[in-house]
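Backbone-to-sequence.
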């Protein structure tokens, strides 16, 4: 992960960015490799905000999450 992303974005923001770059769907393992051990917190936070849903160890962006992820991918 580029240092700029790591410094400017929260773990939740990095999760959205990763999912945006992955087409809106990724496995838990793929996301954990990118985010690190804080994936649990990021996933809980994003789900609470209605940005992602987790189904069968896969993480999927909601419509609201897709809008934010699109903005992040354009910026980074």
């Amino acid at each position: 992960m580029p240092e700029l992303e790591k410094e400017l974005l929260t773990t939740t923001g990095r999760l959205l960015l990763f999912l945006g770059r992955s087409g809106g769907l990724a496995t838990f393992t793929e996301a954990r490799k990118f985010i690190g051990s804080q994936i649990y917190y990021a996933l809980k936070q994003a789900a609470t905000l209605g940005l992602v849903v987790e189904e069968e160890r896969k993480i999927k962006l909601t419509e609201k999450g897709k809008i934010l992820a699109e903005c992040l991918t354009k910026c980074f």
